[in-house]
């Protein structure tokens, strides 16, 4: 459905995206995981036609994305990192404005707005002013706003950044509901747990390069299913070994004294091993 072909974005002093290529199937929940500065937001800006690539292209169902292709733009709903809601207006009025921008007929407008509010469990907030909503509610409403014209693809740039755990999980539940309803979702995040919990495929993005792309279990298997952590007193740090066989991990543990722990490998381990860096905010 979506094809990214040798996409490059260069600025004066650095390369934000370095010839990245991948495809995203219809109905996927696709994650771009990486630290700040990895190129995630640049990718979203190109996908939403806010900036043009230096070279390469993104296409949806064979149609190249550019600023003049309004038909392709209508297939995408964009949720930016920043809250773009009118603070003094109500929830309903904000959605009405968005519906008008997309030329939704007045007769259909109310039905579409109420339908999206009901799907998001926000009907009771429809008359509430934006300035009175919690951060989590605003983030959720940003997604509702992006879905008002029924796009087939929802693209979100760090949609839960700055939220507490409870609010983040409410957003996750809503996103899973949208995905189950058939929406193709592209998520950028630097939260390991978020990508691990939501995405069926994840691209590890680091310094503008896709260093690995696969399902979460397959990415983990690349480094080993089991991890052995031991604290090295001489180096004053924890050293981790990886194994696909737990028995081998147990045998290795017997060779060491002190603090030794065997655990299941996770996506953070995979990212660190495949990029030699940790994901930090």
Describe the structure.
It is built from ten helices and 13 strands. The chain is globular and about 75 Å long. The protein has two domains: 214 residues, P-loop containing nucleotide triphosphate hydrolases (Rossmann fold, 3-Layer(aba) Sandwich), CATH 3.40.50.300; 40 residues. The protein is 35% helix and 28% strand. A six-stranded mixed sheet has the order 6-7-8-3-9-10, sandwiched between helices. A four-stranded antiparallel sheet has the order 2-1-4-5, covered by helices on one side. It has a three-stranded antiparallel sheet with strand order 12-11-13, with helices on one face. With 281 residues, it is α/β, with parallel strands linked by helices. α3 runs parallel beside α5.
List keywords for this structure.
281 residues, alpha/beta, Rossmann fold, 2 domains, 6-stranded mixed beta sheet, 4-stranded antiparallel beta sheet, 10 helices, 13 strands, globular
Give the overall form.
Answer: globular
User: Ends: how far apart?
Assistant: 31 Å
- The total number of structural domains is 2
CATH class of the largest domain: Alpha Beta
What is the number of helical segments per DSSP (H or I, 4+ residues)? 10
The tally of strands reads: 13
Q: H/E element string?
A: EEEHEEHEHHHEHEHEEHEEHEH
Poorly predicted ranges: none
CATH superfamily of the largest domain: P-loop containing nucleotide triphosphate hydrolases
The fold-level CATH name of the largest domain is Rossmann fold
- How much helicity do the residues have? 25-40%
The CATH architecture term of the largest domain is 3-Layer(aba) Sandwich
> Main sheet, how many strands, which sense, barrel?
6 strands, mixed
- Strand fraction equals 25-35%
Please compute the radius of gyration using only Cα atoms.
21 Å
Q: Tell me the structural class.
A: alpha/beta
**Oligomeric form of this entry?**
single chain
Spatial order of the strands in the main sheet? Answer: 6-7-8-3-9-10
Q: Mean pLDDT, as a whole number? A: 93
């Amino acid at each position: 459905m979506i094809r990214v072909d040798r996409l490059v974005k260069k600025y004066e002093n650095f390369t934000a995206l370095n010839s990245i290529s991948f495809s995203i199937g219809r109905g996927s929940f696709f994650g771009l995981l990486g630290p700040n500065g990895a190129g995630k937001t640049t990718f979203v800006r190109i996908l939403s036609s806010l900036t043009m690539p230096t070279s390469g292209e993104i296409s949806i169902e064979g149609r190249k994305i550019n600023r003049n292709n309004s038909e392709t733009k209508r297939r995408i709903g964009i949720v930016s990192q920043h809250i773009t809601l009118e603070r003094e207006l109500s929830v309903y009025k904000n959605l009405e404005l968005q519906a008008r921008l997309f030329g939704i007929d007045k007769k259909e407008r109310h039905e579409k707005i109420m339908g999206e509010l009901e799907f998001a469990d926000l009907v009771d907030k429809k008359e509430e002013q934006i300035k009175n909503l919690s951060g989590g509610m605003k983030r959720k409403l940003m997604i509702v706003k992006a879905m008002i014209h029924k796009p087939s693809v929802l693209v979100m740039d760090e949609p839960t950044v700055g939220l507490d755990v409870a609010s983040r999980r409410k957003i996750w539940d809503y996103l899973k509901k949208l995905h189950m309803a058939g929406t193709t979702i592209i998520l950028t995040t630097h939260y390991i747990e978020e990508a691990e919990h939501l995405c069926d495929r994840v691209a590890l993005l680091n310094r503008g390069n896709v260093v690995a792309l696969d399902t979460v279990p397959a990415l983990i298997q690349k480094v080993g299913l089991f991890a052995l952590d031991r604290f090295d007193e001489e180096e004053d740090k924890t050293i981790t070994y990886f194994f696909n066989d737990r028995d081998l991990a147990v045998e290795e543990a017997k060779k060491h004294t002190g603090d030794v722990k065997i655990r299941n490998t996770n996506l953070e381990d995979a990212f660190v091993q495949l990029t030699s860096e940790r994901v930090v905010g």
